[in-house]
Amino acid sequence: MSDTGKAVFLSYAREDAAAAQLIAGALRGFGIEVWFDMSELRGGDQWDAKIRGQIKTCGLFVPVISATTQARDEAYFRLEWKLADDRSHLMAAGKSFIVPVVIDGTPETGATVPDSFSRAQWTRLPGGQPTTAFIEQVRRLLEGKGAAPMRSNPPMHPAAAPVPAKKGVPGWTWGALIAVIIGVAVALGVFRRPAPASSLPSPASTPAAPEPSSLPPAPAAKPADKSIAVIPFTNMSEEKDSAFFTDGIHEDILTNLALVRELRVVSRTSVMAYRATTKPMKQIAQELGVTYILEGSVRRAGNKVRVTGQLIHAATDEHVWAQSYDRDLTDIFAIQAELSQQIAAALKTALSPEEKALIARKPTENPAAYDLFLRARDILNRENNTIAARLRQIALLQQAVDLDPAFAQAWGELAASCAYGYFLSYPDMDAYLARAKVAIERAVKLAPEDPEVIGSLGTYHYYGFRDYGRATEQYERLARLQPNSPVVFSSLALIQRRQGQWAQSLANSRRACELDPANIFFLRNHMATLVAGRRWDELLAAHRRLIALLPDDEEAVGSLALATFLATGSTAEGDALLASWPREKQETPEIIALRLRWAARKGDLAEAIRLAKLQPLFEGNGVPHWMQAADQAYLYFAAGDRAGAIARLGDHPAQLRDLVAKEPANLNYLTNLADMEAMLGNKQEALRLAERYVSLLPESRDALDGARYAINRATVYDLVGEKEKALAEYTRLLKVPCPNGLNIHVIKRDWSSLRGDPRFEALLNDPKNNEPLF
User: Which of 466, 718, 501, 542 shows the shortest CA–CA distance to 184?
Assistant: First the structure.
């Protein structure tokens, strides 16, 4: 056992086990040892001795408080709480030992807890979802550094992977706009910082780039004879939480079929819109551009599983094939392989020995590990791609490989997610890369020819090192196994953007959209490239296509309004959309934040500052408080109130300086701190930081993100009064493609030290500076 004084003891009610597991998994993911009893049979001398010993020697005691603990006056967790309380009385005053965590709305006042719990600082983690602030606090306390200031526990900062909108959630928040247009927020003006990198690329290869063609106006391409869509399987299980298993079977079958070279298989993203659909098969096939539809169901009961499937020729509604499989749960991989092979046979497709072997492979012998793997995959399939979701996914994948160290696919997924955390500069980013290295080495050693491992290795090179050449090598290998997959073209497009090959990237993103016309991810990535190239007519057409796919989605409507502003400078569409919402909606925290950003974008600083005062620090969007403080301080700075800007920054610059000292290569920290130092009047430090982050990621290394950071540096030049440097960079960068690129309509409405300079005004009024770049 490791140093017991560095371990965390987690105490919880049996009903709160799921939340406790999430907390434990996140802490363990950051190398923190966690003790908590998963046994349903608590009690007895052996248990009593073990628990007493752990509570006596642990570094921190974390009680999980909830409505459940409030309702139970007698329980084993209360004995644990008493033991911890007794130990706390032996400690010096001010010694941090008890760290209460509340997972629901249970108030501190009146809580049925020992007095030592009431005196401690409470942390709220709804549903047990971890935050970076909480994990950092635990680490500091275990290291004996004392508690850092924690005014609140904001959710972890989201990554910018595009995700489908969810019903009932206010759409068109700023984060949603970034997700839809992949970083249309430009460098100048409020919220100037680069958006995080785009989502994990699907495996790709490097086929010859197809000739450019327009995005098809109709949703369906002409179906090939052997094109198929596997619509979501129906969950027939009685267990309420078994939907992840049904979706996992569906995804595995879809993946198996994609391995058959002669088939064109529509992606999971496109088909998920047809869950529980009542549309006729013929209509579905027309919308997806396929000849065949596979539908099915899954029923899981104990250690038994039934999977049914039927293949339909959509144009004639002919049932080409149907079969049901009743097996033990341990035979689930055999079911998937047999079903896939029979579908191929029904479509008169001959399988090569290599294809048969790939389809028949069994990724794990451990059903429990497979369950955890499916749950991990389900998290990002169903939720926004936030740090919190990623941490839960990483924790589940770690549990899966702990149960089965030979589970190569789980190791690969773990490597990909950790590399993604490094790429997005999550807190303690170097630890993510170290974990990714260990995981990918295990995966490759176990199954070097497995398609999922090959894809994970490409992703590791892409996100861990921005080594696009080595990433492409892996995607090429995968493309030989899946030559008809649209992800080949989409992934190649993502790589080519970062290599500065914009025209080739555009051609390949168009091709991906043609092959998979209902895929929202492909369309949004295509739209980001159109923004980078200032191809406004195509962009507006693509937005209308997005609205046709998502007719009730406020994100889609809002993104069209923003795209119209970037293309023409018109704010009428955005104003009309905001005005159309009822007053009670306009007063919600999410929409107040949106109205603030829109007012700033229009140059209405008085209204933006008024709204900022209503909501000084927003809690619902996952943006760190120091970033919000910098953004709001800029409003005061731009309005000529430097004292107000400094007051708004408060102690956030000091906090951010500490973070930079700990992680000197974290680009998110560096860019925000440079802006803060500039507004504080610390010119040389601001310039030093700006040069630092540009040197860490120059445009020569990454044309996409490098341009973003160059734009940030130009902003710093402007803020500190380096007018000639700012003007030179603005002039250059207006000719550089970037989804977050400079836009003359935004700059015209924003503050600049160059305002009134004839050269600057001529730059903004030159129509060539809003014409297509490629």
Answer: 542
Does 245 lie in the same domain as 178?
no
Amino acid making up residue 548: A
pLDDT band at 255 (very low <50, low <70, confident <90, very high): confident
Confidence band, pLDDT 50/70/90 cuts, at residue 159: very low
For 319-363, the DSSP string reads EEEEEEEEEEGGGHHHHHHHHHHHHHHHTT-PPPHHHHHHHH---
Identity (one letter) of the amino acid at 585? K
Report residue 92 as tokens. 């010096």
Q: Which two three-digit tokens encode residue 199?
A: 């989502």
Q: Is the whole-model pTM more than 0.90? A: no
Alpha carbon of residue 373 to chain centroid: 18
313 and 428 inside one domain = no
**Rg over CA atoms, the chain:** 27
Question: Which CATH number fits the domain that encloses residue 117?
Answer: 3.40.50.10140
H or E element at residue 297:
strand 292-301
Q: Which residues constitute the domain of residue 338?
A: 227-360
CA distance 16 to 67: 10
Position with higher pLDDT, 387 vs 254: 254
Q: Is the pLDDT of residue 469 over 80?
A: yes
Question: Domain check: are 131 and 12 in the same one?
Answer: yes
- Please, what is the Cα angle at 366 between 361 and 369, to 5 degrees? 100
* Residue 159: other Cβ atoms inside 10 A: 25
Tokens standing for residue 441: 């080495």
pLDDT, tens only, 500-535: 999 989 998 998 888 788 888 889 999 999 999 999
Checking DSSP bridges between strand 304-313 and strand 318-328, what pairing results, if any? antiparallel
| Edge-to-edge strand list for the sheet holding 101-102 | 34-35, 8-11, 60-65, 101-102, 123-124
How many residues belong to the chain? 774
Question: Are 411 and 439 within 8 A, CB to CB?
Answer: yes
3-state class (DSSP) for residue 4: helix
CA 567/CA 578 separation, integer angstroms: 19
Q: Find out whether 438 and 173 touch, Cβ atoms under 8 Å.
A: no
Task: Check whether residue 415 and residue 522 sit in a common domain.
Answer: yes
Query: Where do the H-state alpha helices sit in 383-519?
Result: 387-403, 408-423, 429-446, 451-465, 468-481, 486-498, 502-515
Question: How far is CA 740 from each of CA 387, 458, 522, 534, 706, rounded to the nearest angstrom?
Answer: 22, 25, 18, 11, 11
Instruction: Round to whole Å and give the CA distance between 532 and 550.
Output: 23
Pair 739, 630 in one domain: yes
Q: Are residues 566 and 670 in the same domain?
A: yes
How far apart are alpha carbons 419 and 423 in whole angstroms? Answer: 6
- For residue 484, the SS3 value is coil
> Please, are residues 495 and 704 in contact by the beta-carbon 8 Å criterion?
no
Joined tokens for residue 551: 């007719």
Buried b (16+ CB within 10 A) or exposed e, 166-179: eeeebbbbbbbbbb
Q: What is the CATH number of the domain that holds 712?
A: 1.25.40
632 and 757 together in one domain: yes
* Amino acid present at 173: T
Whether 236 and 138 map to the same domain: the answer is: no
Q: Is 771 helix (H, G, I), strand (E, B) or coil?
A: coil
Q: Taking every pair of C-alpha atoms in the chain, what is the biggest distance, in angstroms?
A: 85
pLDDT, tens digit, 9 for 90 and up, residues 169-206: 222 222 333 333 333 333 223 334 334 333 333 333 33
Q: Nearest-CA neighbor of 106 among 80, 73, 70, 78? A: 70
Q: Is the dihedral of CA 443, 446, 444, 265 positive or negative?
A: negative
DSSP state of 272: G
Beta strands in 116-235 (DSSP E): 123-124, 227-230, 234-235
Residue 763 lies in a domain: yes
